[in-house]
Specification:
Number of strands: 0
Structural class: mainly alpha
Order of helices and strands: HHHHHH
Number of helices: 6
Radius of gyration: 18 Å
Strand content: under 5%
Helix content: over 70%
Largest sheet: none
Number of domains: 1
Shape: elongated
């Protein structure tokens, strides 16, 4: 059981760091005039981001309900509630870039690079940065929980 708990914790941490890396990659690659190749890389990074977010959620729920301290402990901790709320908020913010990237498919299939206005690129970058700030908030809440605060 201890080994299983350790593997689930590892999966949770791995997915969280991979999610963050995929988000940072999107920030680094995004410009107002991406090439077809860059647009495809951004789309792949966004898919990886979504997959890792799902893995974070699944592994996190396993930890809450089957491993660690139990659901009563976590749902009784205000930092856990904030952490979970931030996770949902970050997920909602991530819908904007994802929908935008999906809209690029038609242009890419036709062999054209997606067209972004400077304002759209700035809005996308802003959404990506807001997600990154949300992730920092999640890490802060996790640290507080780990030290029994909340």
């Amino acid at each position: 059981m201890i080994f299983s708990a350790a593997l689930v914790a590892f999966g949770h941490y791995f997915a969280f760091f991979a999610l963050t890396a995929a988000l940072v990659l999107q920030i680094v690659l995004l410009t107002a005039s991406p090439t077809i190749q860059i647009a495809k890389r951004i789309q792949r990074a966004d898919r990886a981001y979504a997959l890792m977010a799902l893995l974070v959620l699944v592994m996190g729920l396993l930890r809450v309900f089957y491993f660690e301290k139990g659901a009563d402990y976590y749902f009784g901790n205000s930092y856990f509630i904030i952490k979970l709320s931030l996770f949902v908020l970050v997920g909602l913010i991530s819908a904007y870039p994802t929908i935008t990237y999906l809209g690029w498919n038609k242009a890419i299939k036709m062999g054209n690079a997606p067209e972004l206005s400077i304002e759209s690129a700035l809005n996308l970058r802003r959404a990506l940065h807001y997600q990154l700030v949300g992730i920092l908030g999640i890490l802060f809440c996790a640290s507080m929980m780990a030290h029994g605060i909340g």
